Amino acid sequence: MRGQVVELQPETAADWWEVEALFDLCFAPGREALSSYRLRDGIEPLAELSLVARDAGGVLAGAIRFWPVRVAGRPVLLLGPVAVHPTRQGEGLGGALIRHALGVARRLGWTRVMLVGDAPYYSRFGFTRLDGVLMPPPTNPERVLGLALAKGGWDGIAGPVERWDSSCH
Ligand SMILES: CC(C)(COP(=O)(O)OP(=O)(O)OC[C@H]1O[C@@H](n2cnc3c(N)ncnc32)[C@H](O)[C@@H]1OP(=O)(O)O)[C@@H](O)C(=O)NCCC(=O)NCCS
């Protein structure tokens, strides 16, 4: 990372509202109306993977959260939201949050991750379009991206993205 040293730490309960404020600042108003939030409502984010980035003065510079979801009954990581404060963008912090969290996810044994986002940004981490994996409408299918965290992690997995607490089939 360029610029002032920033430390990545697991998000704690004390960070919650500060992280919410950062997401409100970085995303368009009404972010919680997005269909992806219906997959998150009432379900805790994954504590081991949700990180905050603070500078030496303790100022929040970026954050990432992950939720568990299911596709075809199989566990999938849903990456996001991820955001970096506008004054700290372009320093590599977003990339550091994503790479660090994905490394932890691999070590914890997660085999696949998905997100809804811009392919031109996420392709640098290896994300590609997930054909056949359907987010609740009105999501643009071009923005549904996935990455296998273990060889063949997405092979044969298709269908609607469902809440973690949906019944398995
Ligand atoms: C997207 C975001 C998290 C990236 O964080 P960051 O710390 O600025 O990213 P990095 O420093 O790791 O990478 C910067 C590079 O990504 C590129 N980039 C950033 N957002 C991009 C996007 N939406 N599409 C394509 N490229 C993008 C920058 O142009 C820059 O390119 P370069 O390396 O060629 O100079 C941050 O810009 C942000 O918070 N944006 C607003 C919220 C958001 O859109 N979150 C993602 C939801 S899908």
UniProtKB/TrEMBL annotation:
GO terms for molecular function: acyltransferase activity, transferring groups other than amino-acyl groups. InterPro entries: Acyl_CoA_acyltransferase, GNAT_dom. SUPFAM superfamilies: Acyl-CoA N-acyltransferases (Nat). Keywords: Transferase. Transmembrane segments: none annotated. It comes from the Bacteria. Residues 6-150 form the N-acetyltransferase domain. The keyword Cell membrane does not apply. Coiled coil: none annotated. The keyword S-adenosyl-L-methionine does not apply. PROSITE patterns: GNAT. This is Predicted N-acetyltransferase YhbS.
